[in-house]
Structures are given as structure tokens and as C-alpha cells.
Recover the amino acids of this structure.
């Protein structure tokens, strides 16, 4: 696929969207975690460091799909930290669970095949509801405190569903446009090739015609026909040679 294709343009937008959105959200959580480092249990610390490694590797490999998946692993580590939370009230609150779950869902929608993205749209809100029902103590409640968290769950379902629909529609349109452009390019290439062949045929005909006329003029105007010279002339004559040049070439031959 050529670099200037519409599909590649969409992929480049996707790349920067995932890099900036997920990195910014993870950085906020990381700063909050570092500020409460002393109160964090061991699993939280390990997953915070693991997320940092994934962010660095993801940026380094961001031009490949694997790099974007690594970036997605950083907020996934935060979700895992809430799953492993023991309920210790002394644990520091540093994870925005709704944001992290949403970002993982959005990234899967943008990176995975159509059907897998649809699964993420459905499963992410369910996962958020299940995790919040446990009331993990390392989560900053935020919007989850409103209406028992159901508004955040419904919002995630709606936003992920809209993103899935829009992304797949844009991707489908871009692929159709690229196919039309490729078909047009192929047709133009064929027309150019046909015109070039036609030009070469015309040039060949003109060359043969000029050579024939020049030879006939020489034959009509010369006193003695040098047949051997004419035979050799057929191999060496310039297509645009003048009558005088032809005569000289025959004498030399």
C-alpha cells in the first residue's frame, strides 16, 4: 500500500491518538502513584514499574502495531492493579479506573479486527462494573461515585460503541477510495503505455518512410547504381540522412 493512501493516513492518526491519549492518562496515574509510593502495596508498585517499561517500549516501537499494543498494556496494568487490590484501607488511591478501562477499550477498537473491537465495546463496561462493585481501595472514585458508577459504565458503553462505528466506517471508506484510486492509476498507466507504443510505431513508420525516400532520390539522381553499396547502406544509413550523405555513404561502402 503506498504511503500516501488514505488508509495509511488513518493509521497515522490512530498511532498519534493512542500514543498521546494513553500516555497522558497513564502519566497522571503514575505521578499520583509516585506521590503515594510509601502507601502502595507491592503489586501496585510492580505494576506501576511494568507500565513505565511498556510506555517506553511502546514509544520506541510505535511505528509498528506491536508498539501500540505495548502502550495499551500500560493502562491494562492499572486495571490489573485494581483487580489484585486486597481492600487494604491504608492503600493509596492513585488509579482512575474508569479512564483506564475506557482507554484500553478505545485502543482495542482502533487496533483489533472489527469483531474483536465489538467484543471490547461490550466487555469493557461489564469489566468496569464488576471491578467497581468490589470497591478497590487504590481507585480514585471520580465519576464512579455518581449513581453507584452506572453513569460511568453507560458512558463507556456509548463512547466505545460510537468510536467502533465511526472508526470502521472511516476505514471502510478509506479502503474503497484507495481501491478506486488504484484502479484509476492502473488505467492511466495502461493508456500511457498504449500511447507510448503508438508513438514508437509512428516513429518507426516515419523513419522507414524517410529512409526509403532518401534512397529513392539517390537512385533517381545518380548516374551509376552501386548495388553492393546499397546493400551495405541498408544497415548503416541514418534515418534522417540527407541525399548528399547517402551518396557519400554509398561511395564509402
Amino acid at each position: 500500500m503506498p504511503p500516501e493512501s488514505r488508509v495509511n493516513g488513518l493509521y497515522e492518526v490512530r498511532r498519534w491518538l493512542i500514543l498521546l491519549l494513553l500516555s497522558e492518562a497513564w502519566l497522571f496515574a503514575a505521578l499520583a502513584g509516585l506521590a503515594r509510593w510509601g502507601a502502595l502495596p507491592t503489586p501496585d508498585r510492580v505494576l506501576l514499574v511494568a507500565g513505565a517499561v511498556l510506555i517506553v517500549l511502546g514509544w520506541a516501537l510505535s511505528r509498528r502495531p506491536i508498539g501500540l499494543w505495548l502502550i495499551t498494556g500500560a493502562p491494562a496494568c492499572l486495571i490489573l492493579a485494581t483487580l489484585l487490590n486486597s481492600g487494604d484501607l491504608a492503600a493509596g488511591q492513585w488509579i482512575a479506573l474508569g479512564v483506564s478501562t475506557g482507554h484500553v477499550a478505545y485502543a482495542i477498537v482502533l487496533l483489533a479486527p472489527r469483531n474483536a473491537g465489538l467484543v471490547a465495546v461490550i466487555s469493557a463496561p461489564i469489566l468496569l462494573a464488576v471491578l467497581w462493585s468490589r470497591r478497590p481501595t487504590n481507585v480514585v472514585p471520580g465519576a464512579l461515585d455518581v449513581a453507584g458508577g452506572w453513569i460511568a459504565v453507560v458512558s463507556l458503553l456509548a463512547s466505545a460503541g460510537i468510536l467502533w462505528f465511526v472508526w470502521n466506517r472511516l476505514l471502510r471508506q478509506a479502503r474503497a477510495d484507495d481501491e478506486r484510486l488504484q484502479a484509476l492509476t492502473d488505467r492511466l498507466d495502461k493508456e500511457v503505455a498504449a500511447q507510448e507504443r503508438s508513438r514508437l510505431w509512428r516513429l518507426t513508420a516515419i523513419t522507414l518512410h524517410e529512409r526509403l525516400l532518401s534512397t529513392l532520390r539517390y537512385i533517381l539522381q545518380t548516374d551509376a547504381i552501386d548495388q553492393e553499396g546499397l546493400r551495405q547502406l541498408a544497415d548503416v544509413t541514418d534515418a534522417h540522412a540527407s541525399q548528399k550523405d547517402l551518396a557519400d555513404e554509398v561511395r564509402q561502402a
